[in-house]
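Everyone, study these two lines:
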Amino acid sequence: MKYKLLAASILATLSTSAMSATYKLEELGGLDGAKHNYVTDVSENGHIIGIANSLYRLPIDISYIDFTDSAIKNAYDARESYFESIDKEITFTLDDIENNDAVNTNADAHQFMIDFITDTQSNRLTNSEYQKLSSVAATIYGSEGVSEQVLFDEQSLDYDGLTRSTTNILNAVSDDGVMVGWGSAPYEKTSFTQTDEDEEETHFLRDFISRAIVITEDGVKVELAPEFDEYGGISTANDIIKTTNGYEVVGSVSIDIAVDPLDDITDNCDGEDEPVSDCVETYNRSYTAGIFNKRAVKWTLDSSLNITNTELYGLGLTPEDDEDFAFRSNAITLNDSGLIVGTSDVRYKDTDTRITMPVIFENGEVKQFIDQDDDWTSGQALAVNNNNIIVGYAAKRIDTATRTKFFYYDKKSDSVVFPSDYFSSSSSVANDINDNGIIVGEGETDIYNTTTRRREGFIYTVGDDSIVNLNDLLPCYEEDGETHFKYTVAEAKSINNNNEIFGVATKTVEKTDSFGNVVVDVDGNIEYESIAVAVKLTPIDGSVEECPAEEIEQYERQSASFPWYALLLLPFAAARRFFKK
């Protein structure tokens, strides 16, 4: 929200040492063949990694589809009725898809098949009898543009190119460009026959759900597999730092399978009625914490990326004998002195209830620092600077709904502060903090909407009373002095020690379909949409501009029309810092 008429009061809240200038916004470009682009991390030496979402021309395999089945016929009838409701003529038939290659020549047919095989209400998204698709690619921002970094995907046996069935997340990058993250194995089309049946079924199966990976700047890959890898196991890598002798990487690994899910797997995943791996994944989804007990981990690697030591960390609670479900801790980030922070299952106050809270892993202990007496019921620690100041968010009920509030914790003084954000019931999260004590993140700015709310990036200096909306530090107009500034900073993801900020902004562009072609309405007029773009904000000499009052209402209407956060894969927790796996 560009409340530039409040410039005087905004300036009064800015730290004179760090916030005396406005910011220049630079778009960083994006991956060819993708609609949305995001930054996930930036090193002090300028290495930038991210993700691209909504890839164009996802490959569709129709060879296993029964086009006489009522499910696809009903889906087609529903699509045809929808087109009629918007006065649009449908330009493909099911026969065109089956026999005339319409899925590769007609964008509406292509989108229809994507929607069909990924439908959640019918459970086709998780049903192993349907092709699995991922519209997300890991990316590297280099001097020659943005390139894709393949993690575990492979060339498909059924169509040209990668299978496009894997999760692909780059979480962090070291000062010399070594990256860490995690991905899933590609799905393979497999024939399966149930016991006492003669007819073969097609299933799409994979070897593992999540595997941590380290990748050098020139593309050498090293997997960080868990020691417990039955049914694939689980591992994730969340952060990396360069050390004198190599690297330290933190994340999470599976250590075994909890008693209850193991009993279910033993009793039911016998390979008679469904493939074993499909059965196991179904149970992994059905249990809130998954089937694996997972623990925070630190890998020590030498300069050649050989693992020289693996250290596991514990939990912030002691499981009872009758608690037979999975427990979790996760190391999310660390600083140059080796302070590791993350999340862990803990007890809620003095009850048996289990919650997930921010913790420090230190000297063999798992320490909470958020006061549960203030009714905080969950949270994450997302970043720590070299002065041992930790930032993240915690959640509790505010105005009848669970809201997140960003915090910073000074380990030296053992004090937690929840600064004022956009308004009392606004959810906010701190994503990063630099060694100058400047925090960046995002918060909800739509005070009137009680459900899905627009979010905008903020900057905050430790010790100040409240945050500052980054959009208030940007120009009112483009260089022509007449066109309204086309970017809205939605998420501030990373800040370096030069106070340069990296994140995500939205802008309005010509709308494109699943092939990347420009979309026109029934009257032939070009349609428009908001997309997510990766941006860099650089401090510059200047002053906060005071925009004319009449533009505020127009700006509000334009930005409120687009829920940008619907584009983000992992809003608030974000791709770099998430707990589930």
